[in-house]
Records
---
Amino acid sequence: MLEKWNWVVSIYRDYVGAGMLAALFLTALLYLFVTEKNKNTRILFLYMPVLTLLIFFFPPFAAIVYAFTGEEIYYRLLWLVPVTPVLAYSAVKILMDCGKKKRLWVGAAMMGILLLSGKPVYKSPYFSSAENYYHVPQTVVEICDMISQEEHYVKAVFPAEFLTYVRQYDTRIWMPYGREILVPRWGFQYDLYELMEAPCPDAERIASEARDQGCQYIIISERKPLSGSFTDYGYELLANVGGYGVYWDPDLVWYP
């Protein structure tokens, strides 16, 4: 059980990051424990979050969840902890309790604490400024608009960096593999994916495999040195979009 306890603690540490927001949350829980009198509010903003955290840190429960889901799911239990509502309610309660003359200064102090407790989200490698209303790379939008058809589904093979975006933008575009290939624990393997992600993709093998799987379009990065040319194997270069070649087989008809 000590091993599972250390595992849970490491998950929580990774989830909260620097821990400043977690410290504010625990402070807010303590404040509500001392000052909140409404029973329903205490249940919602105090008892329920504390109970959820106790369950999360309970090693036997963690062991059971781990046995069925593995490592990647357990942290999602922390999504059930209403951190933002608790902080917001506590802040409003503090402002209401401190009197009208002090509210401006107390509010400014709380805002300052919140600002200093975190860092800009765009400093993380997992976030970037949105390029459009769809919150997907603009290159994906342009390629999908180019190959999509109003009355028919199309099938296309995309490089790994686009897999999580294509069907988010256009569900009429089918792919031989999707996000599942990016999660090693799931154990999915596709020969076509390995060919596409090779340091020097082999155009002949990719074209053959893509055609066997009904892919009318091949989208591949032009930054990789390509062995051979897709145009020698029945695909035509439709366009170059944002550093990616869009190849099309005009003779291939695919039905889902």
---
Amino acid sequence: MIKINKKIDLNKVPAHVAFIMDGNGRWANKRGLHRHFGHRIGYTRVLMAVKRCADIGIKVVSVYAFSTENWNRPKEEVDEIFRIIRENMHKDLDEFQMNGIKVVASGDITKFPKDLYEKLTEIIEKTKNNTRCTLNLCINYGGRDDIVYAANRLNGKKVTEAEFGKLLYNSDLPDLDLVVRTSGEQRVSNFMLWQMAYAEFLFIKPHWPGISEKLVDKCIVDFQKRKRRFGKV
């Protein structure tokens, strides 16, 4: 029996929620552990969060998993992140299938090591018919890069705002309703700049490895207290 916070109105859940997953390294350092351990624990929280969102009825979840700027981190740390992904992808595919989760990717995934790219494209292909919830993995992704990507597809054509939006990565996904950033930092860090035009923001103190079903529920409760005007009175 799935237990969900009774304060959540299941008829008014956001269509698209994003998580800026910040603080893996700091979570580990506070415990006297290597940053790599924080990434390992943080990785497990992604599936927990998307499954919880699916239980609530949220149809799209985006996670900022690896930014275009993350390549500037020490090579050892980047390699460890890739190692964590390699070790878990087969198990994750089973979980996605069992939970009806469709996986898509935003960002230039061709830049990843060949084996990761091939496995990711396999997961995308094998989950494409799942309909319960869509997990949008923002990997090698940047908001500005997304806009440049769309601009490069224009071929000199003059377009409307709506038409331009259709040229972005995974443009069939709805705009963001809610953006949650962990670790207490209050910035967007080049994440989905176009799609967050009218999103609500929550900056919560726990680092990403400290996210829980209870915290996900609380974020939705807080979101439902907001009055969204979209520029109107």
